[in-house]
Fold each of these.
Amino acid sequence: MAKQFLTSLDDEQLRSALTKLGEPRYRLDQILRWVYKDNVSTFAQMSDLPNELRIRLAERVSIRSIKLQSEYCSAEDSTRKLLFYTRDNHAIESVLIPRKDGYALCISSQVGCGMGCPFCATGYMGMSRNLESGEIIDQFLSVRDHTREMNQEVVSVIFMGMGEPMANFPNVRKAICRIISEDGCQFGVRRITISTIGVKGWVSRLSKSLKNVGLAVSLHAPDDELRMRLVPAVRNSPLAGLMQECKDHQYVTKRRTTYEYVMLRHVNDFESQAESLAKLLQGQLCHVNLIPFNRVTEAPFSPSDSVSTARFERILAGNGIPVTVRTPRGRDIDAACGQLAARDLT
Ligand code: SAH
Ligand code: SF4
């Protein structure tokens, strides 16, 4: 029988597995503590479990469902990219981005992505499969382990790696619940952000079932026509509806929405588009992140020049829209936004 992966099992499944082995109820708490708080990756390390139980569990269950294959460290800015393999040999990537107080962890939710944005390397991979909740949690656990070895901490988790998290929402939700729960990893929910293209209904769904998670919406255009070209999967999801869902999210959570806007030369970086964007976002509790386009071999786009980017930023700021230009990270190791294509660079 194929082994199960512990982090993909919920408490009920774990409890019933332990009952079948004739174990008392408190064993579940012991195991959860070892895996999610103490970060152990083998049953042999669970020193307060009877030896025989450790052996029986190890025969039936694996703790980690992904294996670290390679790690790359950017020579330019200390960003780290971790390449993992799943048990069915798919490559996925997580990225550690240095911050003042630790690392932001950029996590993947799918193998590839089916949304087909023409400026994104993950989009060009196509979609292979959704990640299981355990495979998402395991990125967090493996990376936390790794950063602790460097005497550092993961201070935020952002779903901006490979894939569209809202297209795999049940598993993403399950993983987040484990990462934030008292008997899980006890990570602060407000330190987690989901980035999404915002197909109709997705933002409302997030507001309803994961209220305190941060929201980043990949906008990229101030009008429907251009947006549908840049983000083809939103063709049946007009901007008016998305803006309403975002305003409702702001009202319910009292948190600002981050709008991401990748700056593409002579495509979405004109003055008139900055003015339209300012109008679209007027009165919202929001923040705009202008992302310099990171080159992707297949993508027929060029990055905006610094003058156009500065002008775009000035127009938004002049209209009272909070805005920053994001600093690209890890470009030399293909770890920057949109460059994740799970290619082994060794
Ligand atoms: N699928 C989700 C999250 C993963 S992509 C989403 O699209 O929001 C994370 C961010 O990287 C998105 O804002 C996306 O638009 C941006 N991105 C994709 N390709 C990029 C590229 N080549 N250069 C800069 N940003 C890119
Ligand atoms: Fe998928 Fe996001 Fe890339 Fe679009 S930008 S293809 S939604 S990962």
Note: Residues 84 and 150 are 19 Å apart (CA to CA).
Amino acid sequence: MARVFCFRMICMLDDIAKASSDFDAALANANDSHALDDLRIHYFGRKGGLIPAFFSRLKEVPKEQKKEAGDALNKLRDRLESELKEKSERVAAEEARRKEARSIIDVTLPARAPRLGHLHPVTIVRREVEQIFREMSYTIDPGPEIESDWYNFEALNFTPDHPARDTQDTFFVDVNRLLRTHTSNAQIRAMERWKPPVKVLSAGRVFRRDEITMRRSPMFHQAEGFIVDKGIHIGHLRATLEHVVHRLFGADSKMRMRPSFFPFTEPSAEVDMSCVFCKGTGCGTCSQTGWMEILGCGMIHPQVLRNVGIDPEEWSGFAFGMGLDRVAMLKFDIPNIRTLFENDLRVLQQF
Ligand code: DAH
């Protein structure tokens, strides 16, 4: 029997048929829970969902035809609902199964080796220096990094107007405290703590208000050693330092002492060693001299001994201070001090 539909009705039935076949195609392509959620929202979403929109269009359909349109719509809604539900359940079960499979631990697999850390090149050198002195029965005692003027300067015989005391050169924590500018503070503390005969090695961080360059950093490392005993003379100093240079850089490395000045030693010297790169023949690193400076040293100044209550008539001693960063750079062929403090793992993992 031929039926006569109004234009709106035909149009609506066409739209319902199209929505139905579009859904079939979209459902076939929706293979995970996200895509299925999107599909559900597209068809059933309260705001702008196709099915609710069709229901609101029903009021435009003439009364006598509402039933047919309503039936078609209900059928579509029920079918879409049940197919979405069925596929969503299937996909959710499959996803859960895959997640479970991923979380299963195969206890028969060989264990992964834990990644071991690396010692920093400066730490390697510090430990090596400490070991050399431990073997000569020195006490290892690093001393504090935050220090008073007395231990960092005054007791070491720095005059009150010495330039190192200027805020230009020293980091102050407050009016009474500063960051030690060298490890020599540890000498004074150790001499106060232990009566002679005494020998101590102190290695650690020191701080100076320097610009960062290839050779300088506001924080660097020193190792300081001293001995106080009866009859200590400069021969003991030289023999000790030669031993250290040979242990650190090999028995064929040479050293030489040049006269110098430090307020806390008299006489004072600077020590050069034969350039590790050219073995003394002269190259760019040693400015063609064949020598490289590695430490300062001297015989402990009588006034320094007096400052800690040791009688310089009865006791004498030597002291030295060495830059550990410098030694690390020479040993590991690192041209720029910044490389040591940037903590780039690609660099550190080589040591
Ligand atoms: N404190 C000196 C510096 O930082 C190094 C030094 C020189 C230490 C001579 C000493 C010494 O113990 O005797 O440059």
Note: Residues 58 and 70 are 7 Å apart (CA to CA).
Amino acid sequence: MQASGRLHLGNLMGALQNWVKLQDKYDCYYFVADWHALTTGYANPSAIKESTKDLLINFLAAGLDPDKCTIFIQSRVLEHAELHLLLSMITPLSWLERVPTYKEKQQELKDRDLSTYGFLGYPLLQTADIIIYRAKYVPVGVDQIPHLEVTREIARRFNYLYKEVFPEPEALLTEFPRVPGIDGRKMSKSYDNAIYLSESPKEVEQKLRTMMTDPARVKRTDPGEPELSPVFQLHKIFSSKEEQEEVAHGCRTAGIGCIDCKKILIKNVFKVMEPIWAKRNELINNADVLDDIVDKGTGKAKKEAEETMRLVREAMGLYLQ
Ligand code: ADP
């Protein structure tokens, strides 16, 4: 996860909760990609440190267990950079230029100058991040498939040119809910519509209370169409089937008002967030624990990465005899 902002409910429900499940089944490596944040955020690097801390706290608060998985910070395992450099020698420019997100993101972030070498190389750094652990699977959404295809091609090219070192990683595809933000668009830190895990119960309640509903339902007595309301989209993610039916029926018949409907949603969002808030508070007041966990995870990741780099240098003939 990139250190380019605070963690929000979309990241939690769309990615992090799935990571928590996977830690029981696989030997998982989860890290804060702070170098990646520089590819688009190089002009304001001071924000990265704060974001890194927020992500780490939330990883743990959401249930990642350092005894079950490896949690670390990308920039502390320098081998990622070495592999990125070596892979850059064998990667044709056209493979990177044709990745769809390259042009899309440049369009989206027009206010930044992204005609940089680092930004073009983003999928290559991501490749190094993955194959340095000789990973078999990467838990991603469909939007990441083109990136993973580049990763597979580069691993294949390395194996063909030098020696079979890397497995070709496969996507571990899961259906993720697409969490809407308070304005109905996809929840994203870029749209100013997100609910952050670091916000207080009061702030979260306030955001949900003032959230957009079916625009056609002006008066309390007007019937509404739940499918047109982002509040209902959140009910689908956070509320039970019975509650969803209750609010949908109440909305269509004007049996309940939008405030009542939101009260049920607030209760259910709080159910998910309360244990996270409690653990966040524990961790914020206990910085040493956080440091120890990251040190231990980084040490384990580094050992694995060093072993891969020994194989890589050997395969490329980079050791002096
Ligand atoms: P943002 O859109 O806020 O910049 P990122 O692109 O950093 O979020 O996403 C990090 C992870 O969270 C990715 O796995 C992404 O698919 C997931 N994610 C982000 N926003 C949402 C959302 N609204 N609903 C579901 N998953 C999301």
Note: Residues 1-2, 10-11, 14-15, 141, 176, 178-179, 186-190 surround adenosine-5'-diphosphate (CB under 6 Å).
